[in-house]
Amino acid sequence: MSDPRIDPPPSADERTMLDSWLEWHRETLAVKCQGLTDEQLRERSTPPSPLSLLGLVRHMAYVEHMWFRVVLAGEDYHSPIKSADDRDGDFLGTDDASVEEAFAVWRSEIDNARKAAAGLSLDTVGRAKRHGEDISLRWILVHMIEEYARHNGHADLIRERVDGTTGE
C-alpha cells in the first residue's frame, strides 16, 4: 500500500499546523481505503453497526460540505450524499451507492472546503450558527481534525477486519 501522506511539520505557525494536520487526516482515510474492492469498501464493521469504509467516505463528504460550504461560506445545503433531514443516510445508503461517485464527491468537497477557507483568518466567523453560536474557522479546522481522527480510528479497525491490514 502506498502512502502519499506528508507528515505535518513539528513546528509551524497555527494556520500551517491546522491545515497540515487536516490534510494528513484526509489522506489517512484515503490510505485506509486504498486497494479494496467495492464489496470490501461496503463491508460492515460489526452487526448491528452500519459502519463501513464507504460509509465513512460518504460521511466525511457530508461533513466537509456542512462545515465549510454551509456553516463557513453560508451556502445552501445541497449535498448529493444525503438529504438534510436524513440523519444516517451517509452510513446507511452504501449498499447501492456508487463507490466511484462517493470518492469523487468526497474529493470535490475537500477541494471546495479548501477554496472556502483560502485566505481567511482563523478568526473569521461563519455565516451560519451552531446552537445559536458563531463558529470561527479555527473551531471548524480543529473540529474537522477531531472528526477525521475519530473516524480514522474506525477505519483502522474496519480495514483490519476486511483484510488484516494495519498501520498508522
Rg, Å, rounded = 16 Å
Uncertain spans: none
Strand element count: 0
CATH superfamily: dinb family like domain
Q: Can you give the helix content as a percent range? A: 55-70%
CATH top level is: Mainly Alpha
Q: Quote the distance from N terminus to C terminus.
A: 12 Å
Can you name the CATH architecture?
Answer: Up-down Bundle
Main sheet summary: none
Q: Give the helix tally.
A: 6
Could you say how many structural domains there are in total? 1
Provide the structure class: mainly alpha
- CATH T-level topology: Four Helix Bundle (Hemerythrin (Met), subunit A)
The pLDDT mean sits at 93
Shape: globular
- How are helices and strands ordered from N to C? HHHHHH
Strand content: under 5%
Could you please describe the fold and organization of this structure?
With 168 residues, the chain is mostly helical. The protein has one domain: Up-down Bundle (Four Helix Bundle (Hemerythrin (Met), subunit A)), CATH 1.20.120.450. The chain is 57% helix and 0% strand. Helix 1 runs parallel beside helix 6 and helix 3 packs parallel to helix 5. The chain is globular. The protein starts with 13 loop residues before the first helix and ends in a 5-residue tail after the last helix. The model has no long low-confidence stretch (mean pLDDT 93).
Task: Please name the defining characteristics of this protein.
6 helices; single chain; mainly alpha; Four Helix Bundle (Hemerythrin (Met), subunit A); 57% helix; 168 residues; globular
